[in-house]
Amino acid sequence: MIWRALTAWTTLYGWVNFEVFGQFNNTIEDRRGAFGHSMRVTAGTIGLAQ
Description:
The chain is an all-alpha fold. The protein has two helices and no strands.
């Protein structure tokens, strides 16, 4: 359970920080789509989605 929580938190935290500090500028055009995909993959990884 702790591993799942840490995985979800670090993924979300990383995405938010990259967005806030401009790390995705000129690299990912569809950031909304990429974020959604990443969150779906993370949800599956930690057992929240099938």
